[in-house]
């Protein structure tokens, strides 16, 4: 079913038996109770992939007109190109392996680009503004998942891949004890700066000020500890499925009650549109982008004794993400 894409509109839920339904609020630490499978969707016009990151100098409207009738012809054209070869050459220039490439990118040109996208500046193009909208919807939906089940006061949350703090800061404002990490030192520094500014403003209006998130530079593999909830948004796009399975298992081992993931879903249509983005070379394309089939993610969770409780799809014109909440089976 389709719901409004407005940031302030309610999110509709449905399941196979009851049709539209509302979430039943419950304390967040009771997530181990047998969950019902619930789904939600937010649709816009046919999306293009976040895997293309951004088409800084391309008119996105010209690409967005691609429809189902032209898919076959487009696929034929794409077979004559070799974007992965071009990507490999670009990657070799900045370190070779995926992790080093990602770290280098998000500490330099990628940091400047995504700082603008995640921020509020008007110095963004149409595509970047649309990606900002899509990412903010993902954050909004995650916050709704969490707050609908009870207060976050004192709940420990690991924000794995925190970027500039788009999720960590709202979590702290709700009273959560947040541990936030990112592979990019530049991103972590910006997140700390934003948290100090925004949470200081909040302090003026509250008798009980929120706890400042603990920020740290770290890759996913190095994360340690135990948390009520672990959240990893839009990070799996940097991992091929073989490595993503291990990352999902590791993140699940850190979570006591729930694990929330977002990833670019792998379907024929989305994979084709991802390749369209790869046709436009540029320094921002040095990082490889991996789509993941929802079934593969679900199998990875099942292997470590977790099951999906809730799932949804967030899309705008240039952003799409599958969002899943998993709990111990």
UniProtKB/TrEMBL annotation:
CDD domains: AdoMet_MTases. SUPFAM superfamilies: S-adenosyl-L-methionine-dependent methyltransferases (SSF53335). It comes from the Eukaryota. InterPro entries: Mg_prot_MeTrfase, Mg_prot_MeTrfase_C, SAM-dependent_MTases_sf. It holds the Pfam family Mg-por_mtran_C. GO terms for molecular function: magnesium protoporphyrin IX methyltransferase activity; methyltransferase activity. Residues 232-327 form the Magnesium-protoporphyrin IX methyltransferase C-terminal domain. One of its GO terms (biological process) is chlorophyll biosynthetic process. PANTHER family: MAGNESIUM PROTOPORPHYRIN IX METHYLTRANSFERASE, CHLOROPLASTIC-RELATED (PTHR43591:SF81), METHYLTRANSFERASE (PTHR43591). This is Magnesium-protoporphyrin IX methyltransferase C-terminal domain-containing protein. It comes from Eucalyptus grandis (Flooded gum).
